[in-house]
Amino acid sequence: MTIKRIAVITAGGDCQGLNAVVRAVTKHALKNGMEVFGFKNGFDGLVRNEYMPLDDCAVSGILTRGGTILGTSNIANPFDYTLAPLGTPQEPRNVSNLVMENVKKNRIDALIAVGGDGTLSMASRFLDMGLPIVGVPKTIDNDLSATDFTFGFDSALAVATDAVDRIHTTAESHHRVMIIETMGRYAGWIALRSCLAGGGDICLIPEIPYSDEAIAKAIISRREKGKNFSIIVAAEGAVNERGEMSVQKTIAGSTDPIRLGGISGRIAAMLEEKVGLECRVVVLGHLQRGGTPTAFDRWLSTRFGAEAVELILKGETGNMVALRGGDIISVPIKDAVAKLKRVDPNGQEVRSALAVGTSFGSSRIG
Amino acid sequence: MTIKRIAVITAGGDCQGLNAVVRAVTKHALKNGMEVFGFKNGFDGLVRNEYMPLDDCAVSGILTRGGTILGTSNIANPFDYTLAPLGTPQEPRNVSNLVMENVKKNRIDALIAVGGDGTLSMASRFLDMGLPIVGVPKTIDNDLSATDFTFGFDSALAVATDAVDRIHTTAESHHRVMIIETMGRYAGWIALRSCLAGGGDICLIPEIPYSDEAIAKAIISRREKGKNFSIIVAAEGAVNERGEMSVQKTIAGSTDPIRLGGISGRIAAMLEEKVGLECRVVVLGHLQRGGTPTAFDRWLSTRFGAEAVELILKGETGNMVALRGGDIISVPIKDAVAKLKRVDPNGQEVRSALAVGTSFGSSRIG
Amino acid sequence: MTIKRIAVITAGGDCQGLNAVVRAVTKHALKNGMEVFGFKNGFDGLVRNEYMPLDDCAVSGILTRGGTILGTSNIANPFDYTLAPLGTPQEPRNVSNLVMENVKKNRIDALIAVGGDGTLSMASRFLDMGLPIVGVPKTIDNDLSATDFTFGFDSALAVATDAVDRIHTTAESHHRVMIIETMGRYAGWIALRSCLAGGGDICLIPEIPYSDEAIAKAIISRREKGKNFSIIVAAEGAVNERGEMSVQKTIAGSTDPIRLGGISGRIAAMLEEKVGLECRVVVLGHLQRGGTPTAFDRWLSTRFGAEAVELILKGETGNMVALRGGDIISVPIKDAVAKLKRVDPNGQEVRSALAVGTSFGSSRIG
Amino acid sequence: MTIKRIAVITAGGDCQGLNAVVRAVTKHALKNGMEVFGFKNGFDGLVRNEYMPLDDCAVSGILTRGGTILGTSNIANPFDYTLAPLGTPQEPRNVSNLVMENVKKNRIDALIAVGGDGTLSMASRFLDMGLPIVGVPKTIDNDLSATDFTFGFDSALAVATDAVDRIHTTAESHHRVMIIETMGRYAGWIALRSCLAGGGDICLIPEIPYSDEAIAKAIISRREKGKNFSIIVAAEGAVNERGEMSVQKTIAGSTDPIRLGGISGRIAAMLEEKVGLECRVVVLGHLQRGGTPTAFDRWLSTRFGAEAVELILKGETGNMVALRGGDIISVPIKDAVAKLKRVDPNGQEVRSALAVGTSFGSSRIG
Questions:
Q1: Closest partner residue to D86 among C66, C278, C283, by Cβ?
Q2: Mean pLDDT over the full length of chain B
Q3: Which domains does chain C have, with CATH numbers?
Q4: Rounded CA gap, B26 and B8, in Å?
């Protein structure tokens, strides 16, 4: 089959590099004589049939811009869809047939879906319904086994490391404990690598349960060596030894304690109480997702976008692009989604961190 | 009198450029044959007689480093001093005589005090007690009438503006209201200028009381023009039209950005309720104070440090350095402390902001 | 007279902040019910009647972008104009009447001219011919007496200081003399301030003639103190004690940093010969002019743009905006152009540099 | 054998991350009860027996600093050594025995050699002489087959990409051809990836010989499409179709044309002549090697340093650390040095570049 017309969507939380993918997809497809449509806000645009044609002009100047010109949506799931505005209760329903109809109506020959876990799972279901899809993996947490790196991760890491650098001088000058909370609900890569890159003292990640006692002990031990400040880098999804996470509620649900449930607030309160130390907290939040991508992420996104079109040209839909060494390879979407890449508590990278003096606030490791 | 030996302290909250001041003071003093002592942790070191000699080696490589090698303290007030650790109640007492004794004991001929409002007020009292002091003003908020700029402000502005840039792309991609909370308890310069520099839509500052209705209206009006995202830049000290501030409580009773009802959380909750919009919040907090100073701040700090020593050489103690145009001038410490520089709600800069489409969430201005 | 339609041009070498001026001009003018036209490539567009209408959409997203969406030209002088392409000899002629005609034809009520020395001089002549003009000063060299700061300067300073920082670590590791060449044909502000901000050892500027001997002596003196590396920051326009500049020829006859005998190359060759030291050179060139403006420059540009429109609204054409303290003031274009602001060899800032150990490679100063 | 005392050297051109390696080596070795000696200036320190003991204090604060606290040397080869100062002719001689003596004298049990091609070749010879060595590969050009990435490369790429970004806005505003010259004598990775990351139009690398005609044609073709500016990213080692490189002479040899022999100057002159276009050149040079390493490079350097000590602990001297996926593996030094990793002219990454519209100035590719 000759591919004449492809569509692209960006779905899930935004991150640096989405626009670079869209640009590479567009340029490479145009070069091969295809038309390109950008559907808006992830699968939502395919449900509502909202799109923009993508040409050279549309993607000019977007390589360096964060976010996505297509818009995105965290919640639009065609298999469980609700058009209701936020806060209005409405029964979700399966509108996947609308997607298929709009694909047909617009004579889309193939879809490139840029998204994370959730998006690729949906893509997988549409594949089964006969929609030719190529996946481009997007997870700022870098927690996908199939690929050495995902785009957005390097930029998030750069932001987190810059924060550790900044906080360092204040911690030292004020003899304080400073806690930096990074993204990472189920995988601690951003926290671990920014801690390594910034020289943090204690690192709390989902993969290594912490105990309050071990954290306090590590800080007291530093103080006894004359180091009267400490930097803690904590992934938002860090769990204690009873398996409890301290992720905070969003505002809408319960505004007051915006922070109090969060891991960093919890640890700060605990340390002030147990160790009597002045603590300060910085929650990086959305700073990690936005702004100009690093060179690495722009390179990787461009490679991913170009190779996604290649897969379509070669008829290899049903696959996802991935980085292995310096090469872009393809892996079946179904397999790719299955396996999370998490930090190995007994692995080499944790040992490296211990080697340079980072502790994990754990009574078992280190 | 020949000056043989000077001391320098850095006091109050840290900011970018403190080390550059210490370096310039040290280099210029050494060049003029003086000895230089750095007392630790602001006035605390003068109470406890804790100091380090400063020579070329001690200040090597610190020009680009945030924080202060001398350490600092927010709370050490010799006129109202307590040695008790945090949380231990203890009657504060006046130990200013200890400071005078330590100055005499170490044969310090003059003191350079780098600090803000509080520090310079204390300096003023020590002046009256006969201690020759030169002041170097430090307020990250840039809220001192006597000087065009204070160091640290430009670096904080750079961090805040970078945050506005990053948040912008996410707000646009997700069609959200994003709120960035900056420093600024009594003056809104960081919020106002980062809002101008980053193209923020709504700016909340202590000088222009906001109303919930006006904020909601501004956002709805943007939405009606097809702009379904908004960036709010809010100074931590913004007050509503009833004069209420929403500065948050700290965990253990103090006042850190671990927020219960901080301005950004308050506004987010209000907007989700009133306008039904998804809001996200980033509290910049300590990110604004730390890390490598901007070129401007290093330049200004170096100029301040060198001229502070000049003032001692010229026998002009009792004064403070200040920037006027491109020149460093000197003003009496007593006068300088008296007058806060706040944003003029009817002034030119606010009009400029209105001109480029920024609103102030006020029913009276704009 | 009611102003209905204004034009704006950007002329001369580009710098960071031009787009921010264009954006502020456009937004403020639109808000006051005017139409705005952007003429292309400086005065060239007014000669050829090439323009683009400027509306909210046209200036969206340009605040953070370097360069100018209007284009610019270094050479288009309507009083001495040639349409000939580069390299084709053609008699220049006075086409200023074409400019006046195009202004009339398009019913332009006033022009905002953003440019340097040359541009403002031309503006001054058009003023005399009856064209209402407001000037916005642009000189990356910050060499205008009328204003505390010009936009673009802070961004250039940031780039130069970042370069000094990077080069520092290499100089130290390799025990080398490293020479960084900055912009500054007639005024040494970028070189002087980046040298102060980056801790350079020797600073060569147009205002303080250097001698080879004094430079060599300074380096040897450092070596004798055990410092076997040195950082030299040299403005491109630095002159030796015989008044000779070493600005290099371009390839094809013009004057770009493809150097035959530029200052940095000259000094490097001299030092290798005289002192037998390994030297390395970095010519920053166009890196200093491009890319995202600093927060300071975006703020200043926005203020300038908004106030330029204010001047038109108040009927104060013939003036130029300028920064004094925190205020934008207006000064007659004619006066403003007259007076260059150069580094005072005996002034306070040079003394500050000497204070922190920077020498000027001069036998007379330091 | 129990390892009691190890030595570490950094050799060859400096790059970002060297200090991070030294810090990780030191911390991990100390933790395992070893003593650590840092020999100065690469193998030179082992010849002259110049070293510093490395403890926690010595490596404090160096993680973020460019360069190397140990110093380095490009030229010290113990097998072909000359003590003569630059410019003094002196017969080189083999002093490798001095190295072996100093190792024995200081009771060094193993050496960690951080360096490139040349350094690792020497290491290989010392291995044969019985010195237990572990290698840490250092090549800013990323041209080593054995490892996915080398440290320093990501930082250099970031600098080069930032330069492309800056130059972009000027090229566009002034309608110029701008040429950015990057490092890369034998491999074009920095040029290729910064071109991809920055959206450059033409990329010249050593692996794909260029022809003047093809470059001119590419630019004219862009102009015909209305794009009257172009960005060329050229590796210093790019060769034309006759196999000629245009690397410039160093200053000492022949100062005048510092640039004229360089690739960027050559291409600029050619284009001005052939196409009559205004060209500007920026040679990045040493900017690419210095300054604070990126987060990625600090992470990789730390991992390399920690694992190098692991190899010693496991008795696996004779090997070099390398990155494969997310793991640090070990490969025999001898094998590692043998094989250069160069850009494959027909490979996937070049195809990606072509896909997004980059041409290679070649009559054969694209």
A1: C278
A2: 92
A3: 5-151+293-325 (3.40.50.450), 154-288+344-355 (3.40.50.460)
A4: 9
